[in-house]
Design a protein that fits this description.
Largest sheet of chain A: none
Number of domains of chain A: 2
Structural class of chain A: mainly alpha
Distance between the termini of chain A: 41 Å
Oligomer: homodimer
Helix content of chain A: 55-70%
DNA sequence: CTGCAAGATTGCAGAACCTGCAAGTATTCC
DNA sequence: GGAATACTTGCAGGTTCTGCAATCTTGCAG
């Protein structure tokens, strides 16, 4: 067995190297080379995992395919899971944030939309995105781990909700508002687990607007019974 | 780093041995010895983890303290996480199940109550329960893993909800009802994550009725805004 | 109570993930 | 061009976990 460590590998973040988004053609020669090497490793990782299955894709094999040392692999990604899970949810854009804060709509639905956007639309490399999706469909364990990266949005989204409350001039005890915000995030994350499960089961590639709308509808139905 | 593999170690279930609930004084000499040995291992594990921290509690150390071989350890518990996470949520009792199915109350609240009961009240050994609680408070990583064991109730609880729907003579498309049930479980689990987080942060030992009631109140507030 | 069969434990070898450290190599900057 | 800096690598070692074969214990039948 020993399938998949769903939790954050907790091995800390990658150690050194150009940390923040080495987005290809930024900076000097060095930075470019590193970005390119990382991309090569990621491609190798998914290619091998799609061939042999997640658990049989050893980091030794990945390193050999990408032509780097194992040590460098761990410098880059911190752990085996690191390559596969990617950088986690993206930061929310300012416009999305503003829209959310000022929306008059139902809190849970808006939240789900926001989460959906931070999770889905942020892989710079389309190939990688597709392969990750494919792997998630093929390996339930991996899917589970992928879904659980969602939990990392909690803190930032609680803050967002607090802003929204402020915009609505809601008053009340600090602690009450905070609790309410936290519960909202917890519920939204729960609902999104459902959405992603669906997405990984279905044949379609992307999460579609319909799926999200249906989920919001289900939430409404459930919370009123 | 390398703190905690939150996901199921996925290493399969323990291999051999008297599998099902070796509840101490059941069966012959052999079964009793095994139950006793397992308990000793569990105690050793938590004692050491509370002394040195979860990640520094090596299974070697645990085995030495409990006086068994490492190999036997893995036969018993399947993985390091196995000892600490325990057997996971208990099976729901028939009376609880019936009560849930026939309750006229709000679905989400009832569900949360049910989950709370399957999670909390099933450790045969009070010491172990207390130590697990203490460790969860001390190690956020462990707490996370513990909370995520909740996910395993999904399947059984979906079935429960379907029964409840049937008892209420709800009709509709099979698939719709199933989706609704799944969403309900997802939301309830989300809400319970909140509850457990709270429980592990606070000073109090047990999850109190108040905490649950407050959580249900929060859910209502959130779902109506 | 003796001895056999089934079941449990153990040691060993080894795979796989991951870390610290020191030495080597490449880039950058002056 | 050469020093300073940053990255890569190899190596040794730690930890979790598995398969296998040998050994020991228990349960049981005669």
């Amino acid at each position: 067995m020993t399938e998949f460590r769903t939790t954050a590998p907790t091995s800390g973040a990658p150690t050194l190297s150009a940390q923040e988004g080495d987005d290809a053609a930024s900076g000097g020669l060095r930075a470019r080379k590193i970005a390119q090497a990382k991309l090569a490793v990621e491609h190798a990782a998914f290619t091998i995992a799609l061939e042999r299955g997640y658990e049989h894709a050893t980091v030794d094999a990945i390193c050999e395919a990408a032509d780097i040392s194992q040590r460098t692999f761990f410098n880059y990604f911190g752990s085996k899971d690191g390559v596969f899970l990617g950088r986690g949810p993206a930061q929310i854009t300012d416009t999305d944030a503003r829209e959310f804060v000022e929306s008059p709509g139902p809190l849970l639905g808006d939240l789900m939309a926001v989460i959906s956007r931070t999770i889905v639309d942020h892989e710079h490399d389309a190939d990688l995105f597709a392969m990750r999706q494919k792997l998630a469909k093929r390996s339930p364990e991996f899917a589970k781990a992928l879904v659980s990266t969602m939990n990392s949005v909690e803190e930032s989204h609680v803050a967002l909700i607090r802003e929204r409350f402020a915009a609505q001039h809601r008053q009340g005890d600090e602690k009450d508002l905070d609790d309410e915000a936290r519960m909202a995030v917890s519920l939204a994350i729960g609902a999104m687990r459902f959405v992603f499960r669906r997405a990984f089961d279905s044949k379609t590639e992307r999460i579609r607007r319909e799926t999200l709308d249906r989920a919001i509808d289900l939430v409404n139905r459930v919370t009123t019974s």
